[in-house]
Design brief:
Blueprint (H helix, E strand, L loop, with lengths): L1 E4 L12 E3 L2 H8 L5 E3 L2 H33 L4 E5 L6 E6 L1 H10 L17 E3 L1 E10 L2 E11 L1
Parallel strand pairs: 4-8
Antiparallel strand pairs: 1-2, 1-3, 5-6, 7-8
């Protein structure tokens, strides 16, 4: 019996794959659990169309992320002024949301989500920081953040 998997099933296949299983396993487990549907010609054609659309969307997202990365690499360093102690430790912190807000205030043609900014923890010291931005699975940009004494 040929089936198309709706979602990945361990030791069987990934979502969207056409698999060959014994009829009882397909009829009694995979189809009732909503893990697969029959591989008729119409369903296979629909699957191929969905995969083509997904590939096209993925390519478009990759190119858009590359364009955004080049635009972000061209911006001047972002400067924050904050109160700090004598040892350079900030009384507050500079978070990814602060950085995203400052970037979004600049003259960009897109809105940067704060989740794209990769900070393990907020910036809590004065200095110059190189902050990575994850715009896509394969596209990363870096911006320079200056934190200076107020």
């Amino acid at each position: 019996m040929k089936l198309i998997l709706k979602q990945s099933v361990e030791n069987l296949g990934e979502a969207g794959e056409v698999i060959q299983v014994k009829p009882g396993f397909g009829r009694n487990y995979l189809i009732p659990q909503g893990l697969a549907y029959t591989a008729t010609q119409a369903n296979i054609e629909r699957l191929e169309q969905e995969q083509a659309q997904s590939d096209e969307r993925s390519k478009h997202d990759f190119l858009e992320a590359g364009r955004r990365a080049s635009q972000l690499e061209g911006i001047s360093p972002i400067t924050f002024y904050a109160r700090a102690g004598d040892d350079g430790k900030l009384f507050g912190s500079v978070t990814s949301a602060d950085i995203a807000n400052r970037i979004n205030e600049s003259d960009m043609d897109f809105e940067l989500n704060r989740r794209a900014i990769v900070l393990d923890e907020p910036i809590k010291m004065l200095g110059v920081w190189e902050v990575p931005l994850n715009l896509h699975g394969e596209v990363e940009a870096h911006i320079e953040v200056h934190v200076e004494r107020e």
